[in-house]
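Feature request, filed as a ticket because there's no other form

It would be nice if the structure record came with a short human-readable summary line next to the tokens. Right now we just get the raw output. Example of a typical job, pasted below so the devs can see what we mean:
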Amino acid sequence: MRICVRFLVSFATGLLFLGTNLFGQFRPNLPQFDNGVTLGSFVEADVNHDGKTDIVGIRSPLAPQPNFQVVVLLGNGTGGFGAPVVTSITGVKPIAFITAQPFVIGDFNDDGHLDLAVFGTDPVTAQLAVAVLLGNGDGTFQAGKESIVAAAAGQPSAQTCAYIAGDYNGDGKLDLAYSSSSGIVVLPGKGDGTFSTAVVTAQTGGCLATGDFNNDKKLDLAVATPPLNSPASVSLLLGNGNGTFQAPTAVGAASGPIAAADVNGDGDLDLVTSSGSVFLGNGTGHFPTTHTFTKGGTGTFAVIDVNGDGHPDIVEHATNFTVNVYLNNGSGVFTAGKTYIDDGSSNPGLVAADLNGDKKIDLAFPNFSAGISALTGNGNGTFNANIATAGFVLAPKAAVFVPGQKTGILDSNQTTKFMVGNGDGTFTVKTTTCTVRSAAIGDFNHDGKIDYAGMNAVSGVPYVEVCLNNGNGTFTSTGQQFDVGVAHGLLLAGDFNGDGKLDLFATDANGFSILLGNGDGTFQNGIPTAFPGVSPIYALGDFNHDGKVDVAIINGASGEQVSSVFLGKGDGTFLPPVTSPAAGGKYVAAADLNGDGKLDLVIDGDANVIVMLGKGDGTFQTPVRYAVNATTRPAIADFNLDGHLDIAVANGSTRQVSVLFNDGTGKFPTQAQFRIPGITNDGLAVADFNGDKKPDLVINVYPGNGVVTTVETMLHQ
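Raw output as currently delivered:
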């Protein structure tokens, strides 16, 4: 059995007198570029010398194109990119790594144009080789110039973080360094796009970062264990200036990718790892100080100043569909900033640069449509995207409550966590030891604090348990059991006998029960009402204007859909139901959609949103269907601030939230769609989460593949 959470109506009606906004938009969808190209990985570069950030990546063979290709998206300087400029890779047969195809950008022939080096095998002999595609300075590249790599150099790493360019032998020509099965390999550049014999240093490879860590004017290498490998370690190889390196020295326990930057402003290079470790260098090749910070995810990261204070920060595109910001206090200590929702891809790749010419750092990363999405920065460490809260699952009927002045979210499916709002659309996830399922919320003991009640069981015997709010963000069980032995489904709170004390509505196997509240956090045993329906869905409200709470049920059997309204007697019992033809769905909500003072019903019908206008006597007019994909329960509020209640629903398969706008008569002629990055589990809720008196939305985003679910906050704009 399923049931509607009734808070929607009270929140929505509180918004009726706000000013008018003809659009009612949430944050616009991120602009997308080059959808369908499917770049395995990419980097930023100015390949055509126009001072604007371009994106360079490699596309693997994908029908109908059979070859590896270099794809360049030329930046337009206004935050976008032009059509892809494509060059087929020749000279070698690129190695078809399971992950992204590694490549390195650099000027390998010293002509001032950026070139691209890619690893592969000779098309004829199948020997290991590297090809350099010399750049023409316009985004195109010449045919690859091949250099055979001796077999003793070993198989190149499949990690994109294991390749880097630098002058490791001090001859002024760009070399290649990479990790292989034989160790750390340096290919000395000849200055014409080809390379001399490989120089191998026997050392366990991994992700690489380069720089002069001991200030001897020779390039060194930092090596970190690749992600998901163990044991996690970082080591430093000091360069000898001839392409070889000294024996490694241990830096610390961490895993890559890894980056080199001066994060504490002392003029010496430090190391930052994607696992959340910061190793502060002292300029002698040693790192005596280590800081760690709590990561919100794992993925591609960049070290760059995003808030304009002169200190390099960290921004990360994570695999759980989020963009995480970590702000530097100037001493190399990082604290978490806001977390943002990306555009639905966990593939590697992140560009952090000024894409629109406003001298503020913007971001570009992969999207669900196999292209690139751009996200503009505000220059203060924040970005123009929806906010994310990781590590929380918003249940399909999750309750919204207001502890103090901040709006929070309670997981009403299995209450082990709750989110408390910070007043700006962000949330803090907290855990509770008072664990119940199918929770209802309300002030059950009249102390002015929001409590919750739900189902629990001991030795298989079910009962209702009440968790009282301590006023400090914690909850304590009353220690009492109510309605013992009855396996209720979901619970809702309401005053069914008009005594000013909250009661509980609870679904049963073949009907529902009312547990009358005593006003002190305790409840009487349930008063059952039979209803042998087939997969019924419920909504509560006063459907006949007598001041008593009624129960509306949508029930379907053998294709016939009926609404049955049990009119309350005011004592926890009900009159026989009055019925109307109906339409079935997964969820139902009640609200006055046409302003006639009579409650109407909104039903999620999967491929439709169904509206049934109430007649004021417990019956309804003929259902009206609106074509829209909907798999969540409806969220009802005045989203365009015109005084009429609108409807929001979401669909995981189409990855979008749809808002149906009310014309004031209970009809919904227009819609707006907003992208969400991942599949939802039907969790959707509405409330004012940032204190601007406008309705916002929260929705589940589930990347799949075992990655933790993230809650997306869609703030009203």
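Something like this underneath would help us a lot:
Residues 1-23 have pLDDT under 50 and may be disordered.
Residues 7-13 form the longest helix (7 residues).
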